[in-house]
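Hey, quick one: can you model this chain's 3D structure?
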Amino acid sequence: MDTNDMRFASPGGFSTGVEFESYVRDAFDVAAGRGRRGQPKMLSIGLHGRVIADRGACRLAAVLAHMRAQPDVWFAQRVDIAGTGSPSTRPEPESSVSVLQGPG
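Sure thing. Here's the predicted structure for all 104 residues.
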């Protein structure tokens, strides 16, 4: 719930898309740094159509561009992550950081 656009609706949360972008980018950079040191992390970003479209959509594209520009990042859907639970079924790591995308 930390990197979630609902923080636009929370007191003390995000006031602007720039704040959202900065927060999510920083969270990603921390997770990516830990992954590159051998501690892989997953970053899930909670998005709600009416919230992100109203205040943060223009900045979401910038966040995703930043993530895609980094080496060793895996953009995964839930089904992709579910298949990695058992060591016997876990694929070779494609990355040190996972970014979960919702369906579609």
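One thing worth noting: The two ends are 21 Å apart (CA to CA).
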